[in-house]
Amino acid sequence: MNGWLVAATVLLAAGFGPVVWGVATGPLERRVVAQNFGTSVVCLVMLLLSQAYVRPSYVDLALVLAVLGPAGTLVYARLLADDLGDDPPHANLLTVVAASAATVIVVAMCVATGPGRATVKLVLIGVLLVAGNVIASRALAGGFPGAGASTRD
Amino acid sequence: MTDALTLVSLLLVAASATAAVAVRDPARQALVLAVLGLALAVLFTVVQAPDVGLSQLAVGSALTPLLILLSVRKVRRRGQHEGGDR
């Protein structure tokens, strides 16, 4: 019985299940927000799994996802700008939830690993995750005016 | 506990794959496909194949949606253009 494994299972079931439901149904705005939240959840699950299996190299998966997840969301924000323009999605609550969950999990893993290069990597992933989440949700909410519409015609 | 984790990730893959088939609009399908890629990456990691999961993440989270959305945009534009000519 491994506490990290239990945490990963619970996070996967409670966090990613609603994401699948949210991305499969409802209006386009909700689907984009759900996909963005899903990348954060899976990144945290990867972090917990690397701790659960005692394989520090699995952290690379979380690092790749922390970089590529917001990039994918920016692709949607750019290419779906016409469809999202009428009623841009605001997901401040979800962003706060994802950022605080990332902070809690990264701090817990840093305490578990102890000081060293692995801790620096974990902190880097945490910073990338929180910053990427904030930037992506701001871009979805139309926070960068002109980025979507100016080059379309 | 490992079995429970495998079961949960298998169920999530099945659910998101069914949703990817059921959704009809290509732009929305790209979103569901991205989530399916995430679920597959978790499944690969759970069955101890993180290298496959890594490539799945790299392709599935940014590249596939980009290709689909660019194709949709091009097809739509061409349709509007021909509609304007007639």
From TrEMBL, chain A:
Regions that span the bilayer: 32-49, 61-81, 93-115, 122-141
Pfam families: MrpF_PhaF
Its membrane topology: Multi-pass membrane protein
Subcellular locations according to the entry: Cell membrane
InterPro entries cross-referenced by the UniProt entry: MrpF/PhaF-like
Alphabetical keyword list: Cell membrane, Membrane, Transmembrane, Transmembrane helix
Name of the protein this chain belongs to: Multisubunit sodium/proton antiporter MrpF subunit
Record organism: Streptomyces violascens
Automatic annotation (TrEMBL), chain B:
Intracellular or extracellular location(s): Cell membrane
Domain MrpA C-terminal/MbhD: 11-77
UniProt keyword annotation of Transmembrane present: yes
Signal peptide range: 1-19
Transmembrane region(s): 29-47, 54-72
Membrane topology: Multi-pass membrane protein
Pfam families: MbhD
Major site of localization recorded for this protein: membrane
Alphabetized InterPro entries for the sequence: MrpA_C/MbhD, Nuo/plastoQ_OxRdtase_6_NuoJ
Domain of life: Bacteria
Entry keywords, A to Z: Cell membrane, Membrane, Signal, Transmembrane, Transmembrane helix
Record-given protein name: MrpA C-terminal/MbhD domain-containing protein
Organism: Streptomyces violascens
